[in-house]
DNA sequence: TTGTAGGCGTTATCAT
DNA sequence: ATGATAACGCCTACAA
């Protein structure tokens, strides 16, 4: 049976003190004698009283609740990120209120809810959310923190890996392994992650003579991998020697398509590289070479940004970039130095 | 700059009406003239006013916020479940507050928070949460809904698949395919999912002559797969012909261990079956045969249970069981009918 | 240190 | 239909 919730007044009565005394007993660093606090706590326990955080927030203007907009949870990168973020925030007495943001649908609903609940802040991990939303929240004084996503708008804090650098590392690595006909499988066009990775990859290759890069869009959609594979190895010209996918999920499904639909061997016939270093990338079936995102550091940084903005509303937003590292696994092979043409030069091969 | 939040009083002033009128204008089905409502809405928009849900909840005693305890987000089954649950709940104007519950750690913290925030209900998906917690919440009138988990305690509503039946289907299928030396890789011992699947599998096999079942614990831990594989195929006796893992994640990693560490072929040398039908189970690299959980129906049912218990506090909790189906893929092979009986003997492999 | 009283923003009750 | 007024449960001056 649910008795009527005990309130601070009930506790006060039982303990024979004022209601404010009860409030103080449950407030860190409030001025109250130890004796009285003890009496209050005892009465509270007897009644099973717990301070109502919602009521408290009405006056403190802080709920301790932070909105979290997520798009694609089927990508382990995000589920892992979210889990760790939630864990770390809980340690600081914050909690995440989940918002699923389907396609580019009504991100206005999200806006409404965030405002209506007077959330302390909003974290955006979804690549699909409009930046218009960010602006509207800023002007209401609700801090916005972007994770794995950036925006020109400097009103939002953000944490992201150095995608451009990471992608350039991938490019250099592939070239070093002797690959010359390359391909880039893009993510969703207008996302910051895709733009930066694409730029990093292409720029690093631009200066290398004899390298060709095929560009094809994959939209971060694992279901497009088969058609991507077919297009890359279409009759016309020879297929690429190495393929860089804008994220691991696409890379894994592309590997499957290459191996089981096109009957190509990875890495013997074609090499594949991803980005993120999600757990499945390490599975024996894939052994995907990838550029890792420093997920723990990213989460730590995000927590700092959040706490910073929430506890001192005056503080300026910050943009943070973190570097990961190239994780070399078996999905990339070595090409023999085709001493031939334009520029490519020796690099001896060692193969597994 | 963050102007002071406009309140209903501000709107009332601007619109030249009472504060209660503003409240009514934003309340579905409140008695107010269309004319007045329009005036209020206009003034509200002008000021950027949005009703404060937190303040409202103080008197309605409903926050629209539901706690969600999750354990292992690295298992796609749960991340998918959560995503869909959140989606469906949002459509009903509910939102999920995330609680990560690490090991069997202090589930008391969770309890505290749920109470302190006066959440409308708590959904438990974690297999690790103590049932003591459920009881404490019930007595405070906070409904508890279990997903993919059951408990003796009938005070909680629950949605789960018919694990016992599903596992028995797996057993019958393996027997029908000619397998006789079987193995069960268990999940975490005292979880309802593991208990039920194990029982279903073993019972269905008990009545079949000539079948042996090896039992080994895997703890739903993908990192134990290698040692599990080694133990199963330890020198002594011949290894199993088919292995049923208590969930897909273990099955996938076990397949990797079998293939890449023990150099066994799946399904030619040994068959593997999982439970859940997570997305990766369909990957070409695995083609895992598995028993599916009807995740959409489970989510729908859960939403119903939640809404039911929240909106009519008098309603009794219900326990729901749903059936999935056997999804046959290439990870299971066929053994030739070894017309003989009791024990192991030659059986050549049929392959794809 | 302690109690009193006012207010946080809303909904609910009660007249009108 | 409308407006005053009292909750909702708590925090925080203010005064003592």
Automatic annotation (TrEMBL), chains A, B:
The keyword Repressor applies. It comes from the Bacteria. Coiled coil: none annotated. Transmembrane segments: none annotated. Pfam families: LacI, Peripla_BP_3. InterPro entries: HTH_LacI, LacI/GalR-like_sensor, Lambda_DNA-bd_dom_sf, Peripla_BP_I. CDD domains: HTH_LacI (cd01392), PBP1_LacI-like (cd06278). Keywords: DNA-binding, Repressor, Transcription, Transcription regulation. This is LacI family transcriptional regulator. It comes from Subtercola lobariae.
């Amino acid at each position: 049976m649910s008795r009527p919730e005990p309130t601070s007044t009930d506790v006060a009565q039982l303990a024979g003190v004022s209601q404010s005394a009860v409030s103080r007993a449950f407030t860190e660093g409030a001025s109250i004698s130890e004796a009285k606090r003890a009496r209050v706590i005892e009465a509270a326990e007897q009644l099973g009283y717990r301070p109502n955080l919602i009521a408290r927030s009405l006056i403190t203007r802080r709920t301790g609740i932070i909105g979290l907009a997520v798009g694609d949870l089927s990508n382990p990168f995000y589920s892992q990120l979210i889990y760790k973020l939630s864990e770390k925030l809980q340690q600081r007495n914050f909690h995440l209120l989940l918002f699923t943001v389907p396609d580019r649908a009504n991100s206005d609903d999200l806006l409404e809810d965030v405002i209506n609940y007077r959330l302390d802040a909003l974290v955006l991990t979804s690549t699909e959310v409009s930046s218009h939303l960010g602006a509207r929240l800023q002007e209401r004084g609700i801090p916005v923190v972007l994770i794995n996503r950036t925006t020109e708008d400097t009103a939002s804090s953000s944490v992201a890996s150095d995608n451009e650098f990471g992608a350039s590392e991938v490019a250099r690595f592939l070239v070093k392994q002797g690959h010359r006909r390359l391909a880039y499988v893009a993510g969703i066009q207008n996302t910051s992650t895709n733009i930066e990775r694409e730029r990093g990859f292409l720029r690093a290759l631009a200066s290398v003579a004899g390298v060709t890069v095929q560009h094809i869009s994959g939209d971060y959609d694992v279901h497009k991998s088969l058609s991507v594979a077919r297009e890359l190895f279409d009759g016309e010209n020879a297929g690429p020697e190495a393929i860089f996918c804008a994220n691991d999920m696409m890379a894994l499904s592309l590997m499957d398509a290459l191996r089981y639909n096109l009957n190509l061997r990875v890495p013997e016939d074609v090499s594949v590289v991803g980005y993120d270093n999600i757990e499945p990338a390490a599975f024996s079936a894939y052994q995907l070479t990838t550029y890792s995102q420093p997920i723990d550091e990213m989460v730590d940084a995000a927590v700092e940004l959040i706490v910073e903005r929430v506890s001192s509303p005056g503080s300026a937003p910050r943009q943070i970039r973190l570097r990961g590292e190239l994780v070399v696994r078996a999905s990339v092979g070595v090409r023999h130095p085709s001493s031939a043409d334009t520029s490519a030069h020796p690099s001896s091969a060692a193969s597994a």
